[in-house]
Amino acid sequence: MRIANIVSAIVGMLVSGGAFAYTYTFKKFKNVPVGPEFFPRMLALGMFICCVVLLLSNLRQTEKNKGAAPTLSLKNKGVQKALLSIVLILVYALMWEFTGFLVITPFALFAMIFILGKRNYKMMIFVSIAATIVIFLIFKMLLGIEMPLGFVENLL
Prior knowledge:
Helix content: 55-70%
Radius of gyration: 20 Å
Strand content: under 5%
Oligomer: single chain
Low-confidence stretches: none
């Protein structure tokens, strides 16, 4: 398990470094105190720090990290949920510009809650819509960042 953790830490550090570097390609906005690059940079930095901690904690051999690394199986429900979540996020990202934040986000949140195993549909609908509105208002009013409205923009 020790070698798997070390390799994972190094790969994670490379991915987070690449993500951090990619944020420099984001569009710059005038008179916006916190640009769209801020949050992804903080996530990349946090991921990098976690990977460094993982690497340092596994560089010395202990009884805890001596055993073999567990294998991943597509039969595992957790792995299935993770892969389904990744597919959902990719579809969400691909449709975001066209459909707009306000249209696609409630559906994506509802689907993610469903994947996680909740089945209280009234609460799922409420949370999906309320969270979308709250997030939209925070970005628009508090941070001054415009979210893409997609085809809804032509209707307004």
